[in-house]
Design a protein that fits this description.
Chain A: Belongs to the DRC3 family. The complex is a heterodimer of chains A (526) and B (874). Chain A is built from 13 helices and eight strands. With 526 residues, chain A is mostly helical. Chain A folds into two domains: 201 residues, Ribonuclease Inhibitor (Leucine-rich repeat, LRR (right-handed beta-alpha superhelix)), CATH 3.80.10; 266 residues, no CATH class. An eight-stranded mixed sheet of chain A has the order 1-2-3-4-5-6-7-8. In chain B, the strands form three sheets. In chain B, strands 10-11-12-13-14-15-16-17-18-19-20-21-22-23-24-25 form a 16-stranded antiparallel sheet, with helices on one face. In chain B, strand 13 and strand 14 form a beta hairpin. In chain B, helix 7 packs antiparallel against helix 9 and helix 18 runs antiparallel to helix 19. Classes of the chains: A mainly alpha (526), B alpha+beta (874). Chains A and B meet through helix 2, helix 9, helix 10 and helix 13 of A and helix 15 of B.
Chain lengths: 526, 874
């Protein structure tokens, strides 16, 4: 084969080749005849075998959407490519090719069995997404680094591994190392690992494995923590009060405030600034808690609503099913009597009765549906009103002077006045030359005249107010948009449901009617 | 003569009420009478004779019908212990106290009946009633609780009515005697029950009082059998549907309110009418059932047990009737009054008025106004707080009773004279006398047997009748125990002819319930199974002559239901193969529960194979949000097209309705594959149906075998019944016994024959001891030599005989027939064998004899009787 390798012309995976393969591997005998009559669509094919075809490049496979098993062994493929669409693939055989790196397998998340035997691979990587991997064959490759084994620890279901014929398998410790680091492995190089070897290996590499495990555990814990934090933040975001449970807003107020920072060097300001964040944070906290409470309320409201709607729909479905079942019983009976009946007038009479039944069923089902629509409409409207009220109340309370953000603004105003007072006092002192303390030059520069200092203080104040306003605006807009989206979605869902149901009913009625008509035709023909 | 005759007649009067044991004697007397009569009145008319005969026949009847009365004649008093026959000084003292108390009481309350204080026991000795109670806790857990304990007492003893229903009995036997003979009157019953209850910690008392006729005669014919009463199903509380905020409003009701109202009114009227009619009927029935008024109402003496609240977590005071083991509240109208009550420590007289039965009685025994006690020294139960207030009032009584109390002050109730109550496990297990008991209830008869008494394991049978006279059987329920086939209950409904057998878990075919009308196959029957014990998860199989329905649970293939319709049997020409001629299947319906792994459109809910028409109907599961389900119908036609090719599949062979039409399902290939799969499934289903039929036959056969054999299981712990273990145990005992015998043998006194020669009782002298030893040794030596000689003699005799035979053979060798020759040869080999054995034995004896001799000598030196004397010598 290898001697012939150079002389053989590489082939292209074209439509004809695929068609031929599909036809050859398709159903046999009677079923085959049928298949031939109708033709087989590529997307229905479950298994495809393309070995010994001298394929150089994988191509034209995008149509095989539901393919489960693909064999491309004994070709001259150099790169793994063009397999992105085959997401249902469970078994992939790429052995005896000329592949150098593992790539292009990221979308094949269902893959359980992967064979890359006899290729030119030197490193195991880019297999992270194949979480279901059970069998991995990498024999006769160029893998030399033992650290590749540790990479395989992430595959929880990996049971069979073959690595023989690689440089690393020459190592003296090869088997022990693998057994120790992959304790769930059952078969190595097509041989079962006995328990004794496992124990030995474990004992031998215990320290390093423990260390590894510890590191993995730490990573895991960190990951979990991050996730928990993320979830918490998501929760707060859903309540529209994220970052209000601390000094985040306050910090952001001073973040861009140059003047404010300069002014803090003034005597007396530092004391002022000490108590200010605390007060501010307390207010923010109250807003935060209020927000969470409101969120809880909205959630229960939504849950009750969903539950009730589900119940109503379910009950309606039960009724519908019951009606249909009763109808079908009767219908089947009358169908069989019609079949047995020989006299034309009575047949016609029976058929008339049947079609009347069908019409009645249609009416009943549609009435049921109409009822449900009306009932749901009412419930939805009620819910819409309630949820809008809730949101309105929340927004109002957040904005209103009694509570929360308005308080922030008051606090800021108060602070501003104090600061202004101090600044003017300082200015007077400077003018009088009574100031004992040293001030940095840029701060001193502000105290040129009254306007400058007032401007500076005003600018700082403006920035602060702007921040607060921004936060408030953000909250209000987001909650409002959430509300409208929710209501829209409910309405939309209801409409879709209604349409689906009506479609279903009419489809069923049409089918039954046509069946009856067919019978009629058949009888007349007979 | 006259005097004698009178005496005889008096006796006869007494006898009539007495036991059947005396029937013989009574007969004799009656036989004597006509003879006497003939003597005195020589002329006797036919009328007189006839009259006499009639009278005699009248006399006979009560003797036959009355149950055997338990008299002291039947009791063997000779084996009873001394405490039964005599009174200890303390008991004598107690009797004196009791007499004194009785005198004072009759003086103070002259209008009341004398007290029941010290009846005679079986040895004619007066014993105080409290000492007859012997608190005992028996090692049977069943006797620890009052209900099962009372049930046991009532089962274990046979009731004998009081000789005089208006007076307490003269005799009160010990509980041991009562248990031995397993019969007694109500006083015996309550004494035994009270002893057991006090023993297990209840605050129980024996009561002497008055009861209704039914109670005294243990007449349950007006009671409903407790086994027939169905437990009332707890009325399910209708969960009120909580209207949630967004619960949709129901559609508007457009029907007329007025019409509904009218309808309802009519309905109500009709119902009221019905109810009235029913009530009237019921009343009539009740009237008929009611007992005739009792002329002796309120005078009939009865004894029962009172259990006071407090101990053993008894929440309320109640009565137990020991005859029936029923418990009653003190308000029950069967109990008409209490005269006195006692436990093992004291005796109380009821001083309260019983005009309203026992309903107003207050059971506060510490209240001396209501309950007059006999002994002061014992603790008063229930000393309530009101007592202290009453103290001032009681002072007068105290002064009155001063003398008596002084006397009693330090007096305790003596210990019971009754022996320890014991019930053997065998007696406990057999429960009723002879292991059988019959109770007649209202419209029902209950029969009980001890386990293992009936060979088919029957323990209880309840027969329910339609009418009061118990002539028409309504249904029979039979309970079984220890059956190998785990049969637990057999229920036969006589009106419908339906038999229902219930099984406990463990039947070989996992059968749970089997209801049938006849054991013939292919008839109406329902079999239920313990589905967890079966591999195929079958829970129920219903059969009618034309169909079979099976219900499954928890199967891997989600099959939940299979229904097979059979057609009429096709008549075969040959009659011989009628057995293997199964009914043809017409239709098989199989239903499956939802397989959550498949989408609803591909998960078959039901498939129907109409076998005659080659039609297969498929119905799929309904999608969650849909009301219609997909379905398919295949019609198999094998046709040939114009070119002569077989048509494999045509679009009109499959009619399908799909909720959501999909492309690939429209294809013929898909339909063809589905059809092929269905065909194979049909084959499997048919096979399974056939197997089910076979299984039914097998079960029926097995059931018949089991019914015929009805073997009982015996626990391995049951040492009495388990034959195997019994044999083993006996073998062990035998081995032990033999071992013991051998030991005795080895301990044979070798000095005894020599010691006998010496004068007995005298101490041995040294010389005597020496002689004794020598004699013993020489005797033993002689024996050894004798034995050797004996073996030698036998050996020689055997050799001689052999030689003779050999000689004879040599002489007659020529004339011998082959048979004789064979005979001779076998004789030779046997003789040689014997000779060799004798030789070996002789050699062995020679070897061992000196050793034995030395051993005996050594033994003699160590013999305790000789050691002192011989030691000095050596």
């Amino acid at each position: 084969m290898n001697q012939l390798h150079d002389s053989v012309e590489p082939r292209v995976m074209d439509d004809d080749m695929l068609k031929l393969a599909v036809a050859e591997q398709g159903p046999r005998e009677e079923a085959g005849q049928l298949a031939k009559q109708e033709g087989i669509l590529f997307k229905d094919v479950l298994s495809l075998q393309l070995d010994f075809q001298n394929i150089l490049r994988i191509d034209n496979l995008w149509q095989f959407e539901s393919l489960r098993k693909l064999q491309l062994d004994n070709n001259i493929i150099e790169r793994i490519e063009g397999l992105e669409n085959l997401t249902h693939l469970v078994w992939l055989d790429l052995s005896f090719n000329n592949i150098e790196t593992i790539e292009g397998l990221d979308t094949l998340v269902n893959l359980e069995d992967l064979s890359l035997f006899n290729n030119r691979i030197s490193k195991i990587n880019s297999l992270d997404t194949l979480v279901k991997l059970q069998v991995l064959s990498l024999g006769n490759n160029q893998i030399s680094n033992m650290m590749n084994i540790i990479y395989l620890r992430r595959f929880k279901y990996l049971r069979t591994l073959s690595l023989s014929g690689n440089p690393l398998s020459e190592a003296e410790d090869y088997k022990m190392f693998i057994c120790a680091y992959l304790p769930d492995l059952v078969y190595l190089d097509f041989r079962r690992i006995d328990d004794q070897t496992k124990e030995l290996a474990e004992a031998k590499h215990q320290y390093s494995i423990d260390e590894l495990k510890h590191r993995e555990h730490l990573m895991q814990v960190q990951l979990e923590e991050e996730q928990a934090q993320q979830e918490e933040l998501e929760k707060h975001k859903a309540a529209f009060v994220e970052h209000l449970n601390g000094t985040f807003l306050f910090d952001s107020m001073y973040a861009e405030d140059v003047e404010g920072r300069k002014l803090s060097y003034l005597p007396g300001v530092s004391e002022l600034l000490e108590s200010y964040p605390e007060k501010f944070a307390v207010i923010c906290m109250s807003v935060f808690e209020y927000g969470l409470k409101q969120q809880e309320k909205r959630k229960t409201e939504l849950d009750t609503f969903n539950e009730c709607v589900q119940e109503a729909i379910w009950e309606n479905q039960q009724q519908g099913r019951h009606k249909i079942a009763k109808f079908e019983e009767k219908y089947l009976l009358s169908l069989s009597t019609i079949r047995e009946e020989s006299e034309v007038p009575s047949i016609e009479k029976k058929i008339m009765e049947c079609s009347e039944d069908i019409t009645e069923l249609f009416n009943v089902l549609m009435t049921l549906e109409m009822q449900l629509v009306e009932q749901l409409e009412e419930a939805i409207n009620l819910f819409e009103r309630n949820i809008t009220d809730l949101v309105g109340l929340f927004v109002e309370n957040v904005q209103a002077c009694g509570c929360t953000i308005a308080q922030c603004r008051d606090l800021e105003n108060h602070h501003h006045e104090k600061l202004l007072e101090i600044s003017i006092n300082t200015l007077e002192k400077i003018v009088k030359g009574e100031l004992d303390e040293e001030l940095p030059d840029d701060v001193r520069a502000l105290f040129v005249d009254k306007d400058t200092i007032i401007n500076a203080v005003g600018a700082s104040h403006d920035i602060h107010l702007l921040k607060i306003d921004n936060r408030e605006d953000e909250l209000v807009t987001r909650i409002n948009s959430w509300c409208t989206q929710l209501v829209d979605k409910i309405h939309r869902d209801e409409t879709t449901r209604n349409r689906e149901r009506v479609k279903e009913i009419s489809q069923y009625i049409d089918h039954t009617q046509s069946e009856l008509d067919n019978l009629e035709c058949g009888d007349i023909l007979d | 003569m006259e005097v004698l005759k009178e005496k005889v007649e008096e006796e006869e009067e007494a006898e009539r009420e007495e036991a059947a044991e005396r029937a013989e004697r009574a007969d004799k007397i009656e036989k004597m009478r006509p003879a006497e009569g003939r003597k005195e009145e020589i002329i006797m008319t036919q009328e007189m004779l006839r009259d006499l005969e009639r009278k005699l026949s009248e006399i006979e009847i009560p003797i036959l019908t009355e149950p055997p009365i338990f008299t002291k004649d039947t009791i063997d008093v000779s084996t009873l212990p001394l405490s039964y026959k005599t009174n200890t000084p303390k008991e004598e003292h107690l009797l004196l106290v009791a007499d004194n108390f009785s005198r004072q009481y009759s003086h103070l309350c002259p209008d009341r009946v004398p007290l029941f204080l010290h009846p005679l026991n079986e040895c004619e000795v007066p014993k105080f009633v409290s000492t007859t109670l012997r608190p005992t806790l028996l090692p049977y857990p069943e006797l620890y609780n009052w209900d099962t304990c009372a049930q046991f007492v009532s089962d274990f003893l046979t009731m004998v009515p009081l000789t005089d229903p208006l007076r307490p009995p003269q005799y009160l036997y010990s509980s041991t005697t009562v248990l031995k003979y397993q019969k007694g009157n109500c006083f015996d019953f309550s004494t035994l029950l009270c002893s057991l209850l006090i023993g297990s910690g209840y605050d129980a008392y024996c009561v002497n009082g008055y009861g209704s006729q039914d109670l005294c005669h243990m007449d349950l014919t007006r009671e409903v059998c407790p086994l027939t009463v169905k437990p009332k199903e707890p009325v399910k509380k209708q969960e009120k549907v909580q209207t949630k905020k967004y619960t949709i409003k129901p559609p508007r009701d457009l029907s007329s309110k007025f019409e509904q109202e009218q309808q309802r009114k009519k309905e109500e009227e009709r119902r009221a009418e019905e109810a009235r009619r029913l009530r009237e009927e019921e009343e009539q029935l009740l009237e008929a059932e009611k007992a005739k008024p009792d002329p002796l109402y309120g005078l009939r003496v009865h004894s029962w047990v009172l259990v006071l609240s407090g101990k053993r977590e008894v929440p309320e005071t109640f009565f137990i009737d020991p005859l029936t083991a029923h418990s009653y509240s003190p308000q029950d109208e069967h109990f008409l009054g209490i005269e006195s009550l006692w436990n093992h420590k004291n005796y109380w007289i009821n001083m309260q008025d019983c005009w309203n039965c026992c309903k107003d009685l207050i059971f506060d025994l510490g209240d001396a106004v209501r309950w007059e006690f006999m002994l002061l020294g014992t603790d008063k139960p229930n000393l309530s707080l009101t007592e202290e207030e009453d103290n001032g009032m009681n002072d007068d009584d105290d002064v009155e009773n001063l003398g008596k109390e002084d006397e009693d002050k330090s007096f305790d109730m003596p210990h019971s004279w009754v022996e320890q109550i014991e019930i053997s496990p065998e007696a406990f297990e057999s429960r009723c006398p002879h292991g059988k008991k019959v109770i007649q209830y209202k419209k029902a008869k209950l029969e009980k047997w001890a386990p293992y008494l009936n060979s088919n394991g029957l323990v209880t049978r309840l027969t329910t009748y339609k009418d009061m006279e118990c002539s028409q059987i309504l249904e029979i329920k039979e309970w079984y125990q220890n059956r190998e086939d785990m049969l637990e209950l057999k229920h036969i409904n006589k009106t419908t002819g339906l038999h229902v057998d219930y099984f406990k878990p463990g039947h070989t075919q996992a059968l749970r319930v089997h209801s049938y009308k006849s054991m013939q196959p292919e008839m109406d029957r329902v079999m239920e199974f313990y589905e967890t014990a079966r591999v195929d998860g079958l829970t129920k199989r219903e059969e009618t002559p034309k169909s079979m329905t099976e219900y499954y649970q928890r199967r891997q293939d989600f099959l939940s239901y299979r229904h097979i319709d059979y057609g009429p049997r096709v008549k075969k020409i040959s009659q011989n193969s009628a057995d293997s001629n199964p009914r043809p299947m017409v239709k098989i319906t199989e239903r499956f529960s939802r397989n959550p792994e498949k989408p609803a459109d591909e998960d078959v809910a039901e498939h129907v194979f109409v076998i005659g028409e080659d039609r297969i109907q498929l119905r799929y599961h309904c999608r969650e949000d849909h009301i219609t389900a997909s379905k398919r119908e295949f019609l198999q036609r094998t046709e040939v097209d114009s070119k002569g090719n077989k048509i494999i599949m045509t679009p009109d062979m499959c009619i399908s309705f799909e909720v959501e039409p999909m492309e690939h399902t429209k294809k013929l290939l898909y339909q063809y594959q589905t059809l092929m799969q269905l065909k194979s499934e049909e084959k499997v289903s048919r096979h399974q149906a056939w197997e089910s039929e076979l299984e039914v036959l097998e079960i029926l056969k097995l059931r018949e075998e089991e019914e015929a054999a009805h073997t009982l299981t015996i626990s391995i712990y049951d040492t009495r019944r388990n034959e195997k273990s019994k044999e083993y145990r006996e073998a062990m005992e035998r081995v032990l016994h033999e071992e013991h015998l051998r030991q005795v043998e080895t301990q044979l006194d070798y000095l005894a024959p020599f010691l006998v020669q010496l004068p007995p009782g005298e101490k041995l002298t040294r010389w005597q001891a020496m002689r004794l030893k020598d004699e013993c040794l020489s005797d033993f030596k002689q024996r050894l030599i004798d034995k050797a000689n004996l073996i030698q003699a036998r050996f020689e005799k055997e050799t001689q005989e052999l030689q003779k035979k050999q000689q004879w053979y040599q002489e007659n060798q020529v004339t011998l027939s082959p048979e004789d020759e064979d005979l001779y040869l076998s004789y030779c080999s046997q003789a040689m064998f014997r000779i060799r054995i004798l030789e070996q034995r002789l050699n062995r004896h020679k070897e061992l004899a000196p050793l034995k001799y030395l051993a005996l000598e050594e033994k003699l030196y160590k013999d305790p009787r000789l050691v002192e004397l011989l030691k000095v010598f050596t």
